[in-house]
Each structure stands twice: as structure tokens, then as C-alpha cells.
Amino acid sequence: MKKAFFVNGGAGRVLCSIPALERYAETNDDFIIVSESWSELFMLNPTIRDKVYPVGQKDLFEDKLKDKKIISTEPYRVNQYFNQKCNLIQAFDIEINELDEIPESRPINIELTKEEQIAGYNIVSEVKSTLTKEKVVVFQPFGSAVKIDGRFIVDSSGRSFELSNTFDIIKNLNKHFSVIVMSDIDIPGIEDMGVSFPRSVPLNVWAGIINAADYFLGCDSVGQHLAHALKKPATVVIGSTYPENISYPDNKDFKIIDLGKDKRKYSPIRIGFAPATDRNNESLMMIDNDRQLKRITDSVVMKIGKSINKPNLMGDSKYDGVNVMDPGIKPIGDYKGFASAKKKEKKTVVDEVLELNNVQN
Q1: Whole-prediction pTM
Q2: What is the pLDDT of residues 283-315, one digit of tens each?
Q3: What separation in angstroms does the CA of 97 have from each of 38, 92, 100, 180, 181?
């Protein structure tokens, strides 16, 4: 019987399902994918994008599902996954393709549109100009489980940086790099820290920003999966989860800093509840010594070197030098808050690409 694969969960899960669905498409043509979240991420893959339907699409059941076998994918319930024998990509592969052995971890193949690439390029260029450091680091301090509780930013799952450590890391990074903070929630005091804090940016355009930046630093969240897919160097700091499950320790361009090693217990997410385990794990991302903080910054410097401070060659920016992506800035295209660099007489790489495209068309 034809199959319909339902995929849900966070953006990182959606990205990690793509390689398995690509494999399935190699030998099966008549199937569909129902995206219960983040359907725009499936659009990044040319092999499967035409088979994807948002779960809320009108008449989806009558038109597409009534003759299908429904497969509700759940990689967290794959035995090899919760025993730390495979990663998320492999768990999806085992489940979707009904594999008996653990397969090799396949790449996440994504392609950015010209608009996504150019938007990322323009944002990174403006940040370089405004913050006057030639190398740009995208820093994602929080995962999807983070929430605002009164005056506090809290992640009880133990996957996000603590707020105080976030400030410490930004201060250290600022010495050598222009920093773009990737976060969906407002961070109190961020406006005074000399970083770019984009708001209302679609996730696919965040992929463009990471693609144009020099380095990614983050936690167990979607940014590290995008960096892996885009072959960007990265430092990933991990607390309550296992690197062999949720990250890429075999990627030579990834530096894994495991704060929870020998301290954490596996939390059986989507299998059962383990409140004692969750209590054990919730503070594993807390950094209480300068040596660990320095280790994080040093991992970036060792990979890409320090920036050479440059004068603002583009003149005074009309945008706020601290927050390039202030929501009050007039939108460019469909994206609220984009800030593009002022035009220079000398043509940029993007200008040349656009001109070439116009000639070809």
C-alpha cells in the first residue's frame, strides 16, 4: 500500500528526517509526506519538496490520505537511538526504511534559493560593516524548550545556555568577532552588548545567514543542524542530551563541548515521563568557571582565527549599530527587519551573480 509519512516536532527533527525520506524516494515514487510543523524546511530539499503537504491543507484527507498507509514517524522510540547507538538521522532512516542494521549517517541535503542566499549575505555584510570585525559568528544560546517566566529565561530540559553564561560568552566573542545572536525570544539587556540581534527572520533565511557567516556556536537546537547541512564549522555545547544522538561528533569541522558527560541520565522523551531524571539534568548547561567559558571562545579562535578590526568602509549606517535588525526598520521584500548594506561602487559577488542571472534570463 502507498504510504504517507507524518513528521512532527522541532525544526531539527524535520531537517534530520530529510535523508531518510530521500533514501525512500530512491526506490519509491508514489508516497507523500505530511508535515505537522516546519514544512518550509522540506522546501529546501529538491528530491522530496514536491511530495510535502502541510497537515492543515484543505481536503488533505479526502484527496491524499484516504488510500494511504499512515506512518507516524517517531525516531525517539527507535531502540538504537535511546541506547545511544545511532543519531537522529539514522533513527529516522531505520524507521522509515525499515532497516535492520544501523546505516551510515547520510548528509542533510539542502539548497537555498537566491533570495535566501542574498538575504543572508546582505545581513552578514551589514553586520561586518557596523560592528567592524571581519569575521562573523552566529550564536544560538537557546533551544526550543526555553520559555520566559516573569523576569527569567528558563529551559528546564537542560539544553540551553543559562542567561548569565550567554552574556559571558557574548562578551568573550565580542573581543574578536562580529556576533549575530539567533533567538526567537527577547533577551533583556542585549541592546547594550554590541551585537546584532535579528528579529522576525524566517528560519530558511537564518540558513542563509549561517551560510554567509564564518562560524556557528550553539546548543542542542536547529542551528547546529543547519551548520552541519551547510558544511559550516561549529562549536556545539551539550548538557542533558547525548552528542551521539543529537549532534555530529564525527564531523571534523564540529567541536563538541560536553558539559553533561558522566552526569546526565537519558530522558525518555515521547516514551514516558521521568521527573527524577529531568531534575537531574536541568542544570547541566550551567557553566560556573571561567576556564569552561574560555574553552568555548578558544574553540572558535582555533578554527577561524581572530578578526582584524576594520574601519567602517561603508560610511555611517542608517541602522542602529547595536541592533542591525530592529523591528522598526522598514521591511525589504517580504522579510520584516532586514537591513541591507549600502551600495558601493565596486561590485560585490552578489551583484555579479544577479547581473549574470539577468543576462541568462
Answers
A1: 0.86
A2: 999 999 999 999 999 999 999 999 987 655 443
A3: 22, 8, 9, 38, 37
